[in-house]
Amino acid sequence: MRVLLLGGTGEARALAARLRPDVEVISSLAGRVPDPALPVGRVRIGGFGGVDGLRNWLRDERIDAVIDATHPFAATITANAASACEELRLPHLVLARPAWDPGDAIVVSSDVEAAQAVAHQGFSRVFLTTGRSGVKVFADSDAWFLIRAVTAPNRDVLPRHHQLVLSRGPYSYEGEYALLREHRIDALVTKNSGGQMTRAKLDAAGALDISVVMVDRPPLPAGVTTVGTVDEAVAWVADGEVQSR
Ligand code: NAP
Questions:
Q1: Are 111 and 170 in contact (CB under 8 A)?
Q2: Which of 38, 66, 77, 217 to mutate to test the pocket of ligand 1 (most atoms within 8 A of CB)?
């Protein structure tokens, strides 16, 4: 049995370790970050070339099932995988970690709306954690930003007033609390990524009464089978949803 595991998340690495050696797992990474954390087993890196490329690859590699454990905001690859699997009638599962409860956060549906919310609310010292690609919408803002990302955004998209911190989670509550206080942050801008790796910033913001602007998740493709945990994904495979060809 051969499974394509679309990854780039801690859950995908945990799932690869759990499925082997009974299942032949090929993990796939986009290749966005230098020196990525690698799962155990076979790994391929780089895009497939859209839906057509993915469909051809699945056929050529004689894949029996696809498990999409990509980040909840990786909507393009998730849509492509759903389409390719439907066309090939391949068993397909999405492992999507549960979303955070937004609580009192200002919930918006895009990075653009997050930038509008920051402007309308008059926030002046913003902790921006929406990632490299989420920075450009703030380029014209007059606020000051503490920008945290795994890889540096292009210089021409950076807002006038900012400090850049390059790092990768997990982050501790104590560390996030100290960071928010040290920089006198008045608003945290975050995606609703879910999970424990990066949630300490929300708890610290709550304790310090700092406003939160939260970008809501893109919707999943209609009709896909979805689970929220690695255990459930292991059970999906074990329950025989995947038949070797
Ligand atoms: P995306 O917008 O959904 O995908 C853009 C393109 O990147 C896809 O069309 C595909 O190229 C390629 N791609 C994405 N994930 C891939 C994978 N696992 N294996 C092979 N190709 C992949 O994705 P994204 O938001 O840029 O995220 C890229 C990767 O980073 C994902 O694997 C995701 O799990 C991880 N990640 C994303 C975030 C986030 O906030 N978006 C956060 C943490 C980790 P082709 O069309 O050429 O196949």
A1: no
A2: 77
- For ligand 1, what atom is nearest to the CA of residue 69? 34
Q: What is the pTM of this model?
A: 0.95
Cβ-contact 211, 238 below 8 angstroms: no
Q: Which two tokens stand for residue 60?
A: 């050529």
Reported as a pLDDT band with limits 50, 70 and 90, residue 142 is very high
Task: Answer for the pair 24, 4: CB distance below 8 angstroms, yes or no.
Answer: no
Distance 207 CA to ligand 1 centre (A): 33
CA 158/CA 140 separation, integer angstroms: 9
In CATH, the architecture of 2-98+218-244 is: 3-Layer(aba) Sandwich (3.40)
Which atom belonging to ligand 1 lies closest to the Cα atom of 70?
34
Distances (CA, A) of 40 to 33, 157, 215, 239: 18, 36, 32, 23
Residue nearest to atom 27 of ligand 1 (CA): 74
Q: Place domain 106-215 in its CATH homologous superfamily.
A: NAD(P)-binding Rossmann-like Domain (3.40.50.720)
pLDDT the model gives residue 244: 47
Q: Which residues pair with 220 in a beta bridge?
A: none
| Protein residue with its CA nearest to atom 11 in ligand 1 | 47
Compute the distance between CA of residue 84 and CA of residue 10 in angstroms, rounded to an integer: 24
Instruction: Please tell me whether residue 92 adopts helix, strand or coil conformation.
Output: strand
Would you list the domain boundaries of the chain?
Answer: 2-98+218-244, 106-215
What does the pLDDT look like over 93-115, one tens digit per residue? 999 999 999 999 999 999 999 99
Atom 32 of ligand 1, residue of closest alpha carbon: 8
Name the residue with the closest Cα to ligand 1, atom 13.
Answer: 30
